[in-house]
Amino acid sequence: MATHPENAQNSPMGGHAREPVQENNAQPRTVNGLPVPVRVRAIDDQGYEFTKHALRFRGEDWDIVLNSKRDELRIAFTTEAAEATAEPESNIVNIRFFVDESGRLIVKFSVRHKAQTSGSAVQDRLATYPYKAVMALYKPRVKKPRKCTSRWSSSFTGSFARQRRPQPSVSCYGHAAADVGPNGLEFRDKKEIEEMLPIPPEKIAEPPITTIIA
Questions:
Q1: What is the set of domains in the chain, with CATH numbers?
Q2: Per-residue pLDDT tens for 110-142?
Q3: Which long-range contacts (CB under 8 A, 24 or more apart) does 144-147 make?
Q4: pLDDT for 71-101, tens place per residue?
Q5: Spatial CA neighbour of 70 closest among 93, 96, 50
Q6: What is the pTM for the complete model shown?
Q7: E strand or H helix at 110, and its extent?
Q8: Is the separation of the CB atoms in 84 and 125 below 8 Å?
Q9: 8, burial (CB in 10 Å: exposed 0-12, middle 13-18, buried 19+)
Q10: Which residues does the UniProt record annotate as the domain Flagellar attachment zone protein 1 conserved (predicted)?
């Protein structure tokens, strides 16, 4: 399935960014004489920094939402991401929506938050939020159930009857997964096989006996 990227404009924030500084002034490590990259945090004059985040929402038909309710999805996600992080909506920036090969919704974005709060802590808050407004926009495709047939045939060879047991009837419908995660519903197909009933063998009538008198 093709992806649907969408770029958002960065919200201008007050204050000027400082030059990136290396924490703890530790000596850079080297491996085979080459320096190992060190994570550098860019903290502005107000003590804020940006961290990148990503979330995945369950479901198989999020392309419908992106094609028909993209604006509503952006508003709902921005509002709920701000509530999850306890930051203003203007601090949720660079929002991009994707649909993966399984039809699930992928959201990538950045959050401007206080430097005292680690990026992993922000990610935990985002991942455990219920996102009810976002999930309310999701409507799966209506799938028509497949027609199920049952066959019952019998054949006779000589004086013995051979019967075929009926084939199991299989029905496929969309079911909501029982283990619904914090990011919403996941729909998949399950097969339900009907129990086969025992079939009593048919009785074959014996040929009549005729007495011949000499």
A1: 41-136 (3.30.70)
A2: 999 999 999 999 999 999 999 999 999 999 988
A3: 145/171, 145/172, 145/173, 146/170, 146/171, 146/172
A4: 999 999 999 999 999 999 999 999 999 999 9
A5: 96
A6: 0.53
A7: strand 105-114
A8: yes
A9: middle
A10: 51-141
